[in-house]
Amino acid sequence: MNEKDEDRADAWFHALSDRTRRDILRRVLAGEHSVSALARSYDMSFAAVQKHVAVLERAGLLTKRRQGREALASGDVEAVRAVGVMLTDLEALWRGRISRMDELFASDPQHDTTDNPTHLT
Amino acid sequence: MPVTDVQHDLDALTLTITADFAAPVERVWEVYADPRQLERVWGPPGYPATFVDHDLVPGGRMNYFMTSPDGDKFYAYWDVATVDQPKSFTFKDGFAVDESFAANPEMPESTQVYEFAEVDGATRATFVATYADAASLQKVLDMGAVEGSTLAINQIDDLLAA
């Protein structure tokens, strides 16, 4: 990953590390919500909810547009999908390690594998 | 693929991998007991691992480095906590500042619990990696060369499904 991707990853993980922000993201992924409507869903001040929305916006997980006096927020599904892709890559490192162990066992000259199924999966 | 289950716990910052190997428990243990075998499986592709010190006993220290495709070396260590040969061992996996293998205070340690159980003559291995907090995990992910895959796709699926 280049520096720009790393910065985005930092922002994503920071934004997703808070349960209120994850909850806001769920709501705005389901559909556009005004920030004031979001604020009514939480037992915290409007300003606090606004701050959470701003963190999600800076991370690129949410976009805002103005309609009259209201700020409308919607989730950026593409960005969330990109987080998923990155995490899948990381899981692949573990899978790679385990498949190398499997190869190591399969190549054992002293271990007769003919009595055993190759894999149990 | 011998991986049979992957569990991601976003709140506990834990990744649990379950794998079934067509080999006896003692054979699987040997991979960790023998540094030359461990080197063959530990580093991700392109980042081969070299174990400089290897002492799989309670309180033992494993010092290793991974070499990037560009030749950069990432120094790291295991502090072995408990050993119940051949069934399980636990350790802290952390990063070191340089070839002195002194722990890098800027980098997080993760807690690792590896267990091996016999199932019908084969081995069911369970690997659990736990991180202290999201920032620690992020730092490990930033290294790029390591296995810190605590967060993964299921969490995002859960997030979207909730």
UniProtKB/TrEMBL annotation, chain A:
All residue ranges annotated as the HTH arsR-type domain in the record: 1-95
CDD domains: HTH_ARSR (cd00090)
InterPro entries: ArsR-like_HTH, HTH_ArsR_DNA-bd_dom, WH-like_DNA-bd_sf, WH_DNA-bd_sf
Protein name as catalogued: Winged helix-turn-helix transcriptional regulator
The organism's taxonomic lineage, starting at the top: Bacteria, Bacillati, Actinomycetota, Actinomycetes, Propionibacteriales
Organism: Nocardioides cavernae
From TrEMBL, chain B:
Pfam families: AHSA1 (PF08327)
Annotated protein name in UniProt: SRPBCC domain-containing protein
Transmembrane segments: none
Domain Activator of Hsp90 ATPase homologue 1/2-like C-terminal: 22-160
Native source organism of the sequence: Nocardioides cavernae
InterPro entries: ASHA1/2-like_C, START-like_dom_sf
Family according to the record: Belongs to the AHA1 family.
